[in-house]
Structures are given as structure tokens and as C-alpha cells.
Write a structure and sequence with these properties.
The chain has 350 residues and is an alpha/beta fold. It has 2 domains: 1-109 and 262-350, Isopropylmalate Dehydrogenase, CATH 3.40.718; 121-253, Isopropylmalate Dehydrogenase, CATH 3.40.718.10. The protein has helices spanning 14-32, 45-51, 57-65, 77-83, 90-100, 124-127, 162-177, 193-205, 219-228, 240-253, 293-305, 310-325, 339-349; strands spanning 2-10, 35-40, 68-73, 105-111, 131-137, 147-148, 155-156, 182-187, 213-218, 235-238, 263-265, 272-274. The strands form 2 sheets. The protein has a 10-stranded mixed beta sheet with strand order 2-1-3-12-11-4-5-10-8-9, sandwiched between helices. Helix 1 (14-32) packs across helix 12, helix 7 (162-177) packs across helix 8 and helix 11 packs antiparallel against helix 12. The protein binds nicotinamide-adenine-dinucleotide, 3-isopropylmalic acid and magnesium ion. Magnesium ion binds at residues 244, 248, 277.
Length: 350
């Protein structure tokens, strides 16, 4: 068994956390007898600086021909500033990557790790038992609809087809089957036509999964529920923008955005992209203050979903738990451990 992984470090803390994740991945693969080959490609702002394009052809080719992509983060104030006078946006490269690779299902798990109650903004009895998988639609909706842009008026269309909704909802039903068999579909069906289509599609598919209980929650109420009773939820499926917002919220509820991993998947057998859900964190970049756990746990998801190596994935997850269990905390979790301290503790636990 061998794995060819394309690494896209990107910008800000991206290179710091992918370096940590690559080291952990290498050790986990060696222990599991998996041959690992990695290559590093330009992406995001770093690619703009080198080539003028956030998603250059060489990077695209590497992503489409490898087994899996491990991504850091893209973006930063320098490119935001340049975009005001027509410069390319790093974030556009990220959307182009997701689209080119057909990554319609974005799995964003968040759970309360043992002993981490103190890192949650919620009272312990409220956050206890939280273990939620958000399945975010990733290649449709308002991110990809027609746009008009101006200084006096602007619009972003939010189109969804029935087929686009169904394929991601099926991923969520299947995930619920492997968990607590409870699916919550989040929408804004009291206002949005796309949400009524979404709800209709979920209801039509439900009979195919009689073992899964389904409920529907409006997105504004969901934002509130996640801070009052997050442990009530199991799998949550929602459209692109709602999933972006709710997953950042949920990550903070269980401790920090620095802990949150993700897998972006398309058709079975095609390469997936694995990345922490956080951004390039320009405020802490270059200080070795980034929490690498989200990237390391993304490498675990890579082994599970693209490497068919669930035991190796579980070993990485246990090693992260062990490092946290030793009380090691990066700055986002109220501690002073560096990126390197945390990475070393995970490697030692492995
Ligand atoms: N997938 C991606 O590449 C991605 C995701 C989100 C944002 N972005 C981009 O990143 C840039 C910064 O965005 P932002 O500041 O809104 O969001 P962000 O996620 O980069 O940072 C938000 C806050 O969380 C902290 N944080 C994030 N990750 C952390 C980690 N691993 N360890 C410790 N602290 C961490 C940051 O220091 C900051 O205070 C923007 O250009 C944005 O477009 C990229
Ligand atoms: C950077 C941005 C385009 C991206 C998104 O909105 O999808 C980010 O916030 C994420 O969650 O991966
Ligand atoms: Mg986001």
C-alpha cells in the first residue's frame, strides 16, 4: 500500500501547520507499513506571488493526479489590499480547487476532547458529550452563483439543483448510519427558495434511510442551539455558506478553531482534500504559536478516507488526545505551548 500526497502549504500559518501534519503523517504511515510520497505545490497567495495565479496549472495537475491533497490555508491582508485594485484573490484559488476536484461534501467533525471542558466558553454540563459532524455542501450555492459587483449595487446568486442537494444529503445520511443515526438538516426554509428545495430533497430521501431519524432546524435557531445544547446533535447537513459559519461556531464551542479538521470529498475513488477549517491567521503567523492539531487531525482524516487506513487514523487521533491530555495547550487554548512543542508531543505519543 502506498500513498501519494500533494501538499499545499499556502499562506500565513498554513506552512507551519502542514509541516507539523506532514511529520505526523510520515511517522503514522511508516508504522502502518504505508509507503508515503509527498510533493509540495504553490497555492493561494504564495502562488500569486510566484506566478500571478492562486491555482496554477502545475498545482491543478498535481492535485488531480495524486491520491489526496493536504492543504494549510490561504489568504492574508497583503492580497486583500492588492485585490482592491484588481489583484487576484487567494480565496479564488481555493474555490477553483474545490470545483476542479468536484469536492461537493465537506466533513467537519467537532467533538469535546477529554479534559477540554475548561477550553469551552460553555458551562461544562452544556458542552459535555458534544460530538457533531457537520456535512457542508461545498461546490454550490452562493459561493458559485452568478455575481455582479459594483460600488453602488452588487449581487450574489444562490443557485442549487435537486441533484446537487441530493448527493451531499446522501453523504450525510450514510455518515449518520455509522454514528448515532440522527440527522439534522439546517436551512432557512421560511425565507429562501433554495432552502425549500433543500428540505423537500431531504424529506424525499428519508425513506431510503428508515434507521436514521431526521429533523429540520432553521439556521438562526441552529446558531443558538449550538451554544446552548450542542450535545443534542449528531450529523448536521447544510448548504455551503451556512456550513461555513456554523462549523467555525461549533469549533469554538468545543475549545478552539485550531482543533478543527476537515475532509472534502467528491465521487468515490477520486482524491480528497484535507485541511483544517481555520484560515491563515495573519495575526499569529510566523510566531510558532499556531495550533497544529486541526491540520494533524486532517491528516488522520486523509488516512481514513483516502488511505483506507482507519487504524492509522485512529492512532493519530489518540496521539492528539494524549498531547491534550498531558495539559499541553497552544495559545488559542489559553496555554503557551508552541507549534513545535505540540507537534513533538503528538509524535512522542505516536
Ligand atoms: N481554508 C482556508 O484557506 C481559509 C479559511 C478561513 C479563512 N481563510 C483566510 O484566512 C485569512 C484570515 O482569516 P480570519 O482571520 O478571518 O480567520 P482565521 O481562521 O485565519 O483566524 C481567526 C482567529 O483564529 C485564530 N486561529 C486560527 N487558526 C488558528 C490555529 N491553528 N491556532 C491558533 N489560533 C488560530 C487566529 O489567530 C485568529 O485570531 C483571510 O484571508 C481568510 O480569507 C482561509
Ligand atoms: C477562505 C474561504 C473561501 C473558505 C470558505 O468560505 O469556504 C474558508 O472560510 C473555509 O471555511 O474553508
Ligand atoms: Mg470558513
Amino acid at each position: 500500500m502506498s500513498l501519494h500526497v500533494t501538499i499545499l502549504p499556502g499562506d500565513g500559518i498554513g506552512p507551519e501547520v502542514t509541516e507539523a501534519a506532514e511529520r505526523v503523517l510520515a511517522v503514522a504511515c511508516e508504522a502502518a507499513g504505508i509507503g508515503l510520497r509527498t510533493d509540495h505545490e504553490l497555492f493561494g497567495g504564495a502562488a500569486i506571488d510566484a506566478t500571478g495565479d492562486p491555482f496554477p496549472e502545475k498545482t491543478r495537475h498535481a492535485c488531480l493526479t495524486c491520491d489526496a491533497v493536504l492543504l494549510g490555508a490561504v489568504g492574508g491582508p497583503r492580497w486583500d489590499e492588492a485585490a482592491k485594485t484588481g489583484g487576484p484573490r487567494p480565496e479564488k484559488g481555493l474555490l477553483a480547487l474545490r470545483s476542479a476536484m468536484g469536492l461537493f461534501a465537506n466533513l467537519r467533525p467537532s467533538r469535546l476532547f477529554p479534559g477540554m471542558e475548561d477550553a469551552s466558553p460553555l458551562r461544562p454540563e452544556r458542552v459535555e458529550g458534544t460530538d457533531v459532524l457537520i456535512v457542508r455542501e461545498l461546490t454550490g450555492g452562493v459561493y458559485f452563483g452568478e455575481k455582479t459587483e459594483g460600488t453602488e449595487a452588487a449581487s450574489d446568486l444562490m443557485p442549487y439543483s435537486r441533484a446537487e442537494v441530493e448527493r451531499v444529503v446522501r453523504v450525510a445520511f450514510e455518515a449518520a448510519r455509522g454514528r448515532k443515526k440522527h440527522l439534522t438538516s439546517v436551512d432557512k426554509a421560511n425565507v429562501l427558495a433554495t432552502s425549500r428545495l433543500w428540505r423537500h430533497a431531504v424529506e424525499a430521501l428519508a425513506p431510503d434511510y428508515p434507521d436514521v431519524t431526521v429533523d429540520h432546524v432553521l439556521v438562526d435557531a441552529m446558531a443558538m442551539h449550538l451554544t446552548t445544547r450542542p450535545a443534542r446533535f449528531d450529523v448536521v447537513v447544510t448548504e455551503n455558506l451556512f456550513g461555513d459559519v456554523l462549523s467555525d461556531e461549533l469549533s469554538a464551542v468545543v475549545g478552539s478553531i485550531g482543533l478543527a479538521a476537515s475532509a472534502s470529498l467528491g465521487e468515490p475513488g477520486k482524491p480528497g482534500v484535507y485541511e483544517p477549517i481555520h484560515g491563515s491567521a495573519p495575526d499569529i503567523a510566523g510566531q510558532s504559536a499556531a495550533n497544529p492539531a486541526g491540520a494533524i487531525l486532517s491528516a488522520a482524516m486523509l488516512l481514513r478516507h483516502s488511505g483506507d487506513a482507519p487504524e492509522a487514523a485512529a492512532r493519530i487521533e489518540a496521539a492528539v488526545e494524549a498531547a491534550l491530555g498531558q495539559g499541553l495547550r497552544t495559545r488559542d487554548l489559553g496555554g503557551s505551548a508552541s507549534t513545535e512543542d505540540f507537534t513533538k508531543a503528538v509524535l512522542a505519543a505516536l
